[in-house]
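[step 3/7] inverse_fold.run input=structure_tokens len=203
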């Protein structure tokens, strides 16, 4: 009986230790947040002539990005929100201003198409191929002059429909004819309760 209690006690101790470790890893470190803000502010002065401000810090506790902490920044003139961070592996400073700027612009330009769709919860654009030469730059060319490949994600409050592929093709036509985007992708994300897998296409 004592052996069983000892085993149960040991298991309980291990479980508690795992839970505490998980909580610790999920909780931001205050000193690292301060460092991220300071790095962001220094980067702003060096590259954006002070025309942006840090308003918060993003802690990536899931390892989804190439950083652990990033300064969340707003550009004073354009209102674009973006990130400034030091990469986890190589300690290189980077920013997402250019990609965020183009993403917000394309999201606005897509509004006429999206507003005619039913059951749209939200739409957003993701761009990952902005040339590195635009790091630290806020004087940017029109996205139509760049060979970027945006991906449009449309979140829908419904299940999949038979004509969704046709609707996606119509989206691509709109992007090519109205936005002059030669290549891109799209994704319809359905209500989770429907059990339908997302529709993903490209052109």
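[step 3/7] decode complete -> sequence:
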């Amino acid at each position: 009986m004592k052996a069983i209690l000892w085993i149960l006690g040991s298991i309980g101790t291990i479980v508690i230790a795992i839970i505490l470790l998980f909580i610790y890893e999920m909780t931001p470190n205050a000193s690292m947040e301060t460092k991220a803000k300071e790095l962001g502010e220094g980067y702003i002065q060096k590259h954006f002539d002070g025309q942006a401000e840090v308003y918060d810090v993003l802690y990536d506790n899931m390892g989804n990005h190439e950083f652990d902490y990033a300064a969340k920044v707003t550009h004073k003139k354009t209102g674009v929100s973006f990130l400034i961070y030091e990469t986890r592996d190589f300690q290189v400073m980077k920013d997402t201003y250019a990609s965020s700027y183009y993403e917000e612009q394309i999201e606005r330009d897509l509004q006429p198409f999206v507003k005619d769709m039913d059951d749209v919860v939200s739409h957003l654009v993701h761009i990952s191929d902005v040339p590195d030469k635009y790091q630290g730059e806020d004087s940017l060319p029109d996205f139509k002059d760049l060979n970027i490949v945006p991906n449009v994600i449309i979140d829908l409050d419904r299940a999949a429909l038979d004509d969704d592929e046709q609707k996606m093709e119509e989206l691509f036509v709109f992007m090519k004819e109205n936005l002059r985007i030669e290549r891109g992708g799209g994704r319809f994300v359905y209500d989770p309760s429907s059990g339908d897998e997302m529709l993903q296409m490209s052109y």
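[step 4/7] annotate
The domain at 98-202 is CATH 3.30.300 (GMP Synthetase; Chain A, domain 3).
The chain has two domains: 30-95, 98-202.
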